[in-house]
């Protein structure tokens, strides 16, 4: 792992710990309330963050082994995973986020130098180098934490995240939330 990846993983760990703590502290009513993402409740957003972490694990495994899928086998699988997580308690959601984060960290630690250069496909059909996945994970955690609408704002983002050079569409997603 190079210095940039190590720094990104540190930011991911800090951001994930804050997200887990905030989710763990929510009441059932707060979890079932609308998030700042139209049509999404907070429990669905939290579940999405966990499932996207697992999807990124699959992408890293693909880069490392040459065999895999672009995050999710299908859009239907993605939606089913999010729906399955709706209605869980704060403790269950926090544990799911922690488990997904641990699996992601383990996959990153398994990567070899040449695997980081592998080009893989995302679930949207875009091709990216595997080395972009840690930044994508940080984007997921920071932006969706903001989307929960529980007081976590752009001013609270991990130091360095607001200035981090991001490709599209991540740069636009961050800019869209920066005004909140």
Write the layout of secondary structure elements.
Blueprint lengths: L2 H22 L3 H5 L9 H24 L9 H11 L4 H21 L2 H4 L2 E3 L5 E3 L3 H15 L22 H9 L2
Antiparallel strand pairs: 1-2
Task: Write a structural description.
This protein is mainly alpha-helical and 180 residues long. The chain has one domain (3-178): Four Helix Bundle (Hemerythrin (Met), subunit A) (Up-down Bundle), CATH 1.20.120.450. It contains 8 helices and 2 strands, in the order ααααααββαα. Strands 1-2 form a two-stranded antiparallel ribbon. α1 runs antiparallel to α5, α1 runs parallel beside α7 (133-147) and α3 packs antiparallel against α7 (133-147).
Can you identify the CATH superfamily? dinb family like domain
Q: What amount of the residues lies in strands? A: under 5%
As an assembly, this protein is: single chain
Please give the number of β-strands.
2
Count every helix, treating DSSP H or I runs of 4 or more residues as helices.
8
Uncertain ranges: none
Structural class: mainly alpha
End-to-end separation in angstroms reads 34 Å
Largest sheet, spatial ordering of strands: 1-2
- Describe the largest sheet: 2 strands, antiparallel
What is the CATH architecture annotation?
Up-down Bundle
Along the chain, the helix and strand elements come as HHHHHHEEHH
CATH topology: Four Helix Bundle (Hemerythrin (Met), subunit A)
Total discrete domains: 1
CATH secondary-structure class? Mainly Alpha
Radius of gyration: 16 Å
